[in-house]
């Protein structure tokens, strides 16, 4: 009986040392932070911001803002351009005219990800350059069914003023030229942030 008690004590001591070492090594990698910390935004002051702007996707021009960077061998045979990948650095303006005031750029990738309709995978940042949002970004990751009236894509994060952001962006085609494939898309973005 005493022998079993000694073995049990040794095992418990060994387990407690392993647990202490495990907890200590976790501290190096991560730590809990109080939400009341002064270095973090006040989580009680969350606000909803509505942004409205126009996205100019210029494919055919002397200086295009969107270029195809990859495509599958069968892309040209597909009515949906399945497998085509484009890089963009599109201006965002306050009005549908390209000459209107620029408030930012849409920078990222869109790829044709549907075999049955023109459905794009959108991976982009709205990088703002104007007013109180200058230097701040919103990140979009979602599906854009181009020929639907209004498309909704999630806002999955942000930086600057938009840290801890979440929300959605609604896109509506304002104009599209089938000959040049240039498009102007109206965006209404609703974002919760601190």
UniProtKB/TrEMBL annotation:
Function summary: Dirigent proteins impart stereoselectivity on the phenoxy radical-coupling reaction, yielding optically active lignans from two molecules of coniferyl alcohol in the biosynthesis of lignans, flavonolignans, and alkaloids and thus plays a central role in plant secondary metabolism.
Subunit details: Homodimer.
Q: What is the lineage of its organism?
A: Eukaryota, Viridiplantae, Streptophyta, Embryophyta, Tracheophyta
Q: Which family does it belong to?
A: Belongs to the plant dirigent protein family.
Pfam families in the record, alphabetically? Dirigent
Signal peptide boundaries: 1-20
The name this protein carries in UniProt is Dirigent protein
Q: What are the protein's UniProt keywords?
A: Apoplast, Secreted, Signal
Q: Name one GO biological process term.
A: phenylpropanoid biosynthetic process
Predominant location category: secreted
């Amino acid at each position: 009986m005493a022998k079993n008690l000694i073995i049990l004590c040794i095992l418990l001591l060994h387990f407690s040392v392993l647990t202490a070492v495990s907890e200590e090594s976790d501290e190096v990698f991560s730590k809990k932070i109080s939400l009341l910390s002064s270095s973090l935004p006040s989580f009680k002051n969350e606000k909803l911001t509505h942004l409205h702007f126009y996205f100019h996707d210029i494919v055919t021009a002397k200086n295009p803002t969107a270029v195809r960077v990859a495509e599958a061998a069968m892309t040209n045979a597909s009515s949906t351009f399945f497998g085509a990948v484009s890089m963009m650095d599109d201006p965002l303006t306050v009005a549908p005219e390209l000459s209107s005031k620029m408030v930012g750029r849409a920078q990222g990738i869109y790829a044709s990800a549907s075999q049955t309709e023109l459905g794009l995978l959108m991976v982009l940042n709205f990088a703002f350059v104007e007013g109180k949002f200058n230097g701040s970004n919103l990140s979009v990751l979602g599906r854009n069914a181009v020929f639907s009236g209004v498309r909704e894509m999630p806002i999955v994060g942000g930086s600057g003023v938009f840290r801890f952001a979440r929300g959605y962006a609604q896109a509506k085609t304002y104009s599209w030229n089938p000959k040049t494939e240039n498009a102007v898309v109206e965006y209404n973005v609703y974002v919760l942030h601190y």
